[in-house]
Automatic annotation (TrEMBL):
Domain HTH tetR-type: 14-74
Keyword Lipoprotein set for record: no
Keywords in alphabetical order: DNA-binding, Repressor
Keyword DNA-binding: yes
Domain of life: Bacteria
SUPFAM superfamilies the record matches: Homeodomain-like (SSF46689), Tetracyclin repressor-like, C-terminal domain (SSF48498)
Protein name: Transcriptional regulator
């Protein structure tokens, strides 16, 4: 048998890490970061405990890698979706729709994001202030800028920008929690997405 190429080895490595990270999400949602052990993750991933240690020296390094991956994914999506060439209202409504529809299809994924935000300080101990500051800046600042633009162009009501963003974000996150907790059936979900969008924008949209 011919030896594997470097590309094949890298693909195997990448697949193994992805399996471990996916298993970590599952265990994390069940037990939380403090109670999760490497053995739990290995069992969930269906791999040897030693293999997890081959890639990660300890649990906290694994969680830092996991959180970093999803922090970067969130920042990339938010930047792309809120700085596109579409109109302000279109972008803001699509933003709400994306998160609610994603939650309906994959509630555990959104539960992970919600829980991750609470545990960033613990996982990144020592540099948590910098990580939180960067994450907040990269996920909230595009929203603030978009609201400022909407007020300037007259599509959003004249108001305190940061207050409007908090109202918008608060309504969205509480709605995400309702969807993630399975409070709506699949048949009800689409109608409820439209209802949330309607309720949010009745409060902030300038109809003059």
């Amino acid at each position: 048998m011919a030896p594997r190429s470097s590309e094949q080895n890298e693909k195997i490595r990448s697949n193994r890490i992805e399996e471990i990270l996916n298993a970590t999400i599952e265990v994390y949602l069940e037990k939380g970061v403090r109670a999760t052990e490497i053995g739990d993750i290995a069992k969930k991933a269906g791999v040897a405990r030693s293999l997890v240690y081959y890639y990660y020296k300890d649990k906290m390094e694994l969680f830092r890698d996991l959180f970093t991956k999803y922090i970067q994914a969130a920042e990339t999506y938010i930047k792309a979706s809120l700085t596109s060439e579409e109109g302000t209202l279109v972008k803001l409504k699509k933003y709400v729709r994306f998160y609610l529809e994603t939650t309906q299809k994959n509630p555990r994924f959104m539960k992970f994001y919600r829980q991750m935000e609470q545990d960033i300080g613990y996982v990144f101990e020592g540099v948590s202030d910098d990580v939180l500051k960067s994450y907040t800046l990269n996920t909230r600042q595009p929203l603030i800028q978009l609201f400022e633009q909407g007020i300037q162009e007259g599509t959003l009501k004249e108001s305190n920008v940061r207050l409007m963003v908090h109202v918008y974000w608060g309504a969205l996150t509480y709605s995400i929690d309702m969807f993630a907790n399975g409070e709506f059936t699949e048949q009800e979900a689409q109608q409820q997405v439209d209802t949330v969008i309607d309720l949010i924008f009745k409060g902030i949209q300038n109809d003059k």
